[in-house]
Fold each of these.
Amino acid sequence: MVTVGVSQDLLASTEAELREYLARVEDPELPVSITELGMLRGVTVTERESGGVAAGVSLVPTFLGCSAQLFIERDVRAAVDALEDLTELHVEWCPATEWSTSDITSVGREQLRHVGVAVPDPDGGARCPHCGSERVVVDSEFGAALCRRLGHCEACGDPVEIMRSTSSGGRR
Ligand SMILES: [Zn+2]
């Protein structure tokens, strides 16, 4: 199985498999993948001298000190067991300050809207995930998770969870 010298094809296919794998790793507090949340900053693959492929994955947390980080890292590391050609994996965390809600993909925004989470723009405006109104008010700084605040929509009256716009706390 182990051959001397890993082909470029193997590196490319392992990277593709790893990216596919990472696209299925979800934030434990939100049913949205880390890829759609904009947490994946980079993937590198290199050939190991002893055979197989080593990968480096760099991630950025959505909130400083978020406990979800530990679970995400564990799930990301499990790629070593899931992918046949991957034999080594390093996880690197970028400073939390490098993430903001503008990193969330349009797919991610849609998935968050479905679970009642509003994503504010970096400049602050958040739309109600239920009715689309901009009349969203914050009731509490503390939501179900550190990265979210609790509020409600003045238009439809429904409760709204609001993501903090930056990982350093989202205070504007
Ligand atoms: Zn509403």
Amino acid sequence: MGAASRAYNTDDFRTLARRRLPRGVFDFIDRGSEDETALAESVAAFRSIKLLPRHLNDVSQRDIGCTLFGRRLAMPVAIGPTGAADILWFGGELALARAATKAGIPFTLSTSSTTPVEQVAETTGGAVWLQTYLWERRELSHAVIARAKAAGVQTLVLTVDTPVIPNREFNARNGFVNPFRVTPRITLDIMAHPRWLFGVMGRYMLNGGIPRYANYPPEMSGAITGKPSRLANAASITWEDVAKLRDLWPGILIVKGILAPDDAATAEKHGVDGVIVSTHGGRNLDSAPAAIQMLPAIRAAVSKQLAVIVDSGIRRGSDVVKAVALGADATLIGKAALYALAGAGEPGVGRLLGLLRDEIDRTLALVGCPSFAAVGPGLVLQQAGTLVGPGRDGTAFREAV
Ligand SMILES: Cc1cc2nc3c(=O)[nH]c(=O)nc-3n(C[C@H](O)[C@H](O)[C@H](O)COP(=O)(O)O)c2cc1C
């Protein structure tokens, strides 16, 4: 298993990734927007949540699986959409898809990716989720959606939190901009990371060149280092677009990037099947609250039928337990999977998912829950000594312990 066996948690994979990747590439996956407040708080918010264990419950038989959209998942985790995984590892998107499928969880392919959706659908046995933004020329987005349908994709994720390009100053500082120009600093950075230079870029050069966007319409496709597309995300996106998509897409439709409870309720009124409560991993609005902080109010604003998924800041299995306790049906991981991929390829992602699975299992045992059916807000301390929801007997709502 090589490098992967030296990693015992997400942070270890982050260290491996930092060693392997040129600085500009590592920063691209690791960092947030502006002052990186939302990024820091997304992680800190999970850390600050405390679980109150209940003991003397038989936890000898445990089940960490869940059901989402009528399908059984091995754990309430999916790999979220992250464009450009292929620049971290040769064939990185397929490596993520295979590792997720082996672990019994969904993989989300970003439309900003370099592996054709058809290939990923085949690799995942049709279990891939496809994420898309909406472009100004709606017909181009609708064509991509028709292509996904033809490829057998059943789940579509519409990301709505990026109407303009976020301010990620580190990319500009690192010269990580489109079109990409090789500067002396970048050359030195790349030369200092020969494993990435030869193992990733070198292999692409021997296999047809720099990866190209494979799921954009022909008007937009090009090398990932090429000129920015003039077909930007639609800043004009509205609920009417969601309604139109609901008409066009017969499968499962999820809206990603929701933070306000009333937006979640409006999404449900538009007939979507799920929402993803997200700050885009702290990469967009730097003044956003942590997604996990908004989760209880969002859960309360929608019906039980609407799947509520949360991401941004999940690094440990205990974070997944906290998310479910606060009302999530499932979670997504973004950076954690990318660190594992960049640090150790597919075995790395497999090991990370195994570590998360073990952490979830151990946390459930330690809090006295044999399965997620027993996990609820009564496990979570809001402030020292205050439960955020009913205890197991249903009585302790917001009472001091
Ligand atoms: C490098 C990178 C690229 C991303 N690309 C996309 C994308 O193309 N579409 C999207 O909806 N979200 C994208 N995201 C956001 C993730 O889907 C997810 O919301 C976020 O990473 C979750 O937070 P976490 O990284 O703390 O787990 C990206 C995130 C990263 C780190």
